[in-house]
Each structure stands twice: as C-alpha cells, then as structure tokens.
Design a protein that fits this description.
Blueprint: H1 7-47, H2 52-66, H3 70-80, E1 84-87, E2 90-93, H4 96-121, H5 125-133, H6 138-168, H7 180-188, H8 197-222
C-alpha cells in the first residue's frame, strides 16, 4: 500500500490546476474593469455635461450602479443572459466566466464614473476658460484639454478599484466557474482529510495576497504628490 502523500506534496500536485484557476480570476477581473472603464468614462463625462438633464440622469444612474449589491447583480446577469447569442450569421456561446465579469462590471461602472467626475471637477476653471478662448465647444474641451490632464490622478483610484474587483471574482465560485476557489474545493472533495481544509484555503489567501498587495502598494505610491 502506497504511503499517504504529505500536505506539501498534495499542494504541489495541485499547483498547476490552482494557477490555471487563478488565471481565470485575473481574466475576469481584467474583463470586468475593461467594460467598467469604457462605460464608466462615458457615464462620468455625461455627469459633467453642459446639459442639465444629462448631468442629472447620469448622476442618478451612477449612484444606482454604485449601490447595487455585487453578488446579486452577478447572479442576475448570469441567469438573465442567454447561453448563446446569434451574431454575424453564427451562434456564439457566452461562457459563465464572461457573465460573471459583466455582472461585476455593473457596480464598477458607477465607481469609475465617480472617479472620472471627481477628477474632472478638480481641474481648475482656468483650463475651461482657456479652452473656450480657443473656440472649443464643451465636448471638445473635455476631450482634448480636460480629460488628458486628469489621467495621472485617475490611475491610483482605478488601480484600487481593479484590486477590489479582482478579489470579488472569487464570488464566481457560487456559479461553478472553475476559478481558484472552485478548483480548491473540487480537489478537497477528492480527499478525506480534514487537515487539508485550512492549508488549502490559506493557499488561496496567499495567492490573492501576492497578486493584490503589490498592486495596492503601487496605487498608494501613485497617490503621493
């Protein structure tokens, strides 16, 4: 009878599958932030629009998105989106990880919108006046003069939000997506050993920590004047 593998041996055997699962966490986080950034910049720009109705409507929508519960939105998006969609003459499957990423992107859109709005409001009024003196309309001034000046101040809060979104991707475990947490649980289910439980989840903590902590420190450094 073969001796029972040690704890370290088991974790080493699981390492390739765990890293592959964590790669899916990163993919979901990047996808969610890409969607949130594109939509959030647009919504944030509308919050500083020259049209009062657009400003109010964008502000209400931004507050709504920021107050949505992440887990509930993720479930709604996952179950409301179809299994596959018909586009360009063929059927495209929507994988579960993509649905999770879109669900996590919804609240993040509201946060990106507020980040953009705050950064634009922080630009001195003299920059707006200079843009008007050059004959630029409000939208042109925002695009060519104001937004480029806000980019340095946007990086740090964007990185902090990305860290939060990436950590939230572990919620995909509840939908059966084969990310890090799900992979750990599937491996634990094959072992009748209670001593594996805490070390296995401790490994999940370490993997997330080693990825998130340097990013959060970098974001903190970027916040310094």
């Amino acid at each position: 009878m073969l001796p029972e593998p040690t704890l370290l041996q088991l974790l080493w055997q699981w390492a390739p599958a765990l890293l592959q699962g964590f790669g899916l966490n990163i993919l979901m986080g990047v996808t969610a932030m890409l969607v949130a950034t594109l939509a959030g910049v647009l919504l944030g720009s509308l919050q500083v629009s020259a049209h009062p109705r657009l400003r109010r409507g964008a502000g209400h929508l931004s507050r709504l998105l920021r107050n949505l519960p992440w887990l509930v939105v993720m479930f709604y998006v996952a179950y409301l989106l179809p299994y596959e969609v018909h586009w360009a003459g063929r059927w495209w499957q929507l994988p579960d990880w993509l649905k999770v990423a879109l669900g996590l992107a919804m609240p993040a859109i509201g946060y990106v919108s507020e980040i953009v709005r705050g950064a634009v409001r922080a630009v001195p009024m003299g920059q707006w006046e200079a843009a008007r003196a050059l004959g630029l309309r409000h939208g042109q001034a925002l695009r060519y003069v104001i937004i480029p000046q806000t980019l340095p101040s946007l990086v740090a809060p964007w990185m902090n939000l990305y860290c939060a979104v990436t950590m939230s991707t572990s919620l995909a475990n509840l939908l059966g997506v084969q990310e890090l947490m799900t992979t750990v649980q599937s491996h634990l289910s094959t072992q009748l050993r209670s001593d594996l439980l805490l070390p296995a989840y401790g490994l999940v903590f370490i993997v997330f920590f080693l990825y998130i902590y340097p990013l959060s420190r970098w974001a903190k450094r970027l916040e310094r004047p």
